[in-house]
Amino acid sequence: MTTSRTTYTLALALVAATTVNAQNALKDGTTLQWDKEIAVGMDSLRNDSVTVAARTVPVFEASAAQVTGLMKTVMPGAAFKKQGDLQKAVGVNFGPAGTPLDVLARVAQDKKSGTSTLALAFLQPGTSTSLDPASLQPAVRDLGVQLNKAVVQGQLNTWTAKLDKAGSKTESATQSQDKAQG
Asked: What is the CA 91 to chain-centroid distance, rounded?
């Protein structure tokens, strides 16, 4: 009986860890192969009555809330505060120049594709005057790479915890079986 339960638990853990659909993804939407491109796009953000140029970057397999939380991790020192539909951080050291900028951010989520898009606009400190986003494009792409890496690391941590838990249960069942057999 215990041997059957142990075998069943092992089989269930193995199936759960390796079940894939036709898109090479797990049931929770986690892809098993990275085939995505992190490309910087163009957009605009409306700040008060002024529309400013922005750069966008996709964050795959992440919700808008998850991206917002990760921004605090990958942009240390940036204290984003809600300002209408946008988030604003003042005095952020961003990009190669290293001079403080004000940053406007908006995260939009496409639930169907599981992708969130982060739009960033850069302003001269204390003004609503837009800075040239083209010069910051490489830094925006680097930020996108960091955000996507953080999402993947979170997925790895989740699956490691699940597999460790399954391994612990299996080990416990094996010990119980050994004890029962004397």
From this structure: 24
